């Protein structure tokens, strides 16, 4: 039976990305060696990094003066690496979920942290608006897509200080104005590649200003200067990112990804709103196009397990909600097809007809 992968992360990738990466793992560029057993300094591997960086710059329209680097450690390492490199005196954080809160916590090791707003009291069911960012903050940190709660800031905010964004779960799903950001980072395993690599886009002239000694590995300048080759980078994950970046380009770039994201999410939210058995969990205007969270309506709460079993039997994978929200979460990253969402919607309709 066909499986539809709605996992939140690591998550769905286009089949051809997986197949092409698998081929290179068996025989890299016809060398007779595996991608897993060559040096990252082999002359064949450098073009992989170069093309990946060039595609990221092209797809996101990255202006001059920014560098793109690949690091290990996940987005979670960035929670501390960002303030270590960018926090001079004071940083502002928008608390929109567990990941946002974790980032905020790490910044406290490096200076004053101002929480400009929080929706924690409402279990992060909305994105706070109208908050005031201190004019003397070095940056405002935001989490553009809250993977666990299903809210999203799907635009580049206009604020008086530079933005720094965790875009782990919605990068490459829409065009962005990189010039508004001093730094953008994303763990690859949600919407870009297999787990193991983090993409960081940094504004070069903002580096080296923090008033502290930064250990070599944690200093972005080390990796910018060495083109992500200061130490051994995650070779296979970077290769899988390259395949996916090529796939995004072939399929119309981030503008097309944005359109697909709208089509998928609108179809699914429409069914959640129509179907008497289900309801959405977050404020409509803040609904994420990437992670669609919903629960059984109160009257039908006892049917949660039954629906999960029913949907699983029909091939839906990974739709159980995160434990802090409950219910269901259908993650609809770039590689999810409209057909996949249609299959889930059909499931919801069929289940309704049985009740
Ligand atoms: C998954 C996730 C993280 C954590 O990523 P790791 O790579 O596991 O450290 C951070 N931020 C967001 C928005 C996420 O979705």
From TrEMBL:
Pfam families: Aminotran_5. It is found in: Cytoplasm. Pyridoxal 5'-phosphate binds at residues 75-76, 99, 147, 166, 189, 231-232. Its EC number is 2.6.1.52. Pathway: Amino-acid biosynthesis; L-serine biosynthesis; L-serine from 3-phospho-D-glycerate: step 2/3; Cofactor biosynthesis; pyridoxine 5'-phosphate biosynthesis; pyridoxine 5'-phosphate from D-erythrose 4-phosphate: step 3/5. It is an enzyme of class 2 (transferase). The keyword Cytoplasm applies. L-glutamate binds at residue 41. It catalyses: O-phospho-L-serine + 2-oxoglutarate = 3-phosphooxypyruvate + L-glutamate; 4-(phosphooxy)-L-threonine + 2-oxoglutarate = (R)-3-hydroxy-2-oxo-4-phosphooxybutanoate + L-glutamate. One of its GO terms (cellular component) is cytoplasm. Homodimer. Catalyzes the reversible conversion of 3-phosphohydroxypyruvate to phosphoserine and of 3-hydroxy-2-oxo-4-phosphonooxybutanoate to phosphohydroxythreonine. This is Phosphoserine aminotransferase. It comes from Hoylesella saccharolytica F0055. The gene is serC.
């Amino acid at each position: 039976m066909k499986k539809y992968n709605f996992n939140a992360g690591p998550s769905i990738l286009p089949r051809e990305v997986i197949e092409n990466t698998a081929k290179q793992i068996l025989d890299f560029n016809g060398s007779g060696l595996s991608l897993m057993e060559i040096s990252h300094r082999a002359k064949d591997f450098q073009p992989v990094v170069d093309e990946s960086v060039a595609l990221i710059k092209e797809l996101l329209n990255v202006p001059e003066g920014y560098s793109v680097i690949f690091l290990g450690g996940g987005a979670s390492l960035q929670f501390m690496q960002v303030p270590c490199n960018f926090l001079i005196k004071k940083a502002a954080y928008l608390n929109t979920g567990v990941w946002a809160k974790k980032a905020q916590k790490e910044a406290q090791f490096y200076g004053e942290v101002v929480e400009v707003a929080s929706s924690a009291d409402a279990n992060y069911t909305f994105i706070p608006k109208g908050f005031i960012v201190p004019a003397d903050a070095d940056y405002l940190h935001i989490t553009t897509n809250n993977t666990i709660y299903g809210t999203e800031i799907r635009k580049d905010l206009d604020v008086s200080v530079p933005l720094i964004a965790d875009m782990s779960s919605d990068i490459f799903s829409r065009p962005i104005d990189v010039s508004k950001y001093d730094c953008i980072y994303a763990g690859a395993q949600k919407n870009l590649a297999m787990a193991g690599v983090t993409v960081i886009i940094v504004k070069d002239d903002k580096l080296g200003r923090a008033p502290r000694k930064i250990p070599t590995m944690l200093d972005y300048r080390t990796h910018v200067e060495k083109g992500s080759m200061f130490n051994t980078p995650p070779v296979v994950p970077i290769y899988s990112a390259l395949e996916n970046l090529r796939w995004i380009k072939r399929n119309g770039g981030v503008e097309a990804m944005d359109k697909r994201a709208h089509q998928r999410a609108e179809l699914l939210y429409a069914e959640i709103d129509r179907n008497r058995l289900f309801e959405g969990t977050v404020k409509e205007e803040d609904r994420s196009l990437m992670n669609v969270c919903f629960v059984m309506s109160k009257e039908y709460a006892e049917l949660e397990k039954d629906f999960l079993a029913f949907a699983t039997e029909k091939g839906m994978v990974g739709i159980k909600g995160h434990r802090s929200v409950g219910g269901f979460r259908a993650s609809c990253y770039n590689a999810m097809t409209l057909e996949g969402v249609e299959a889930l919607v059909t499931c919801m309709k069929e289940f309704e007809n049985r009740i």
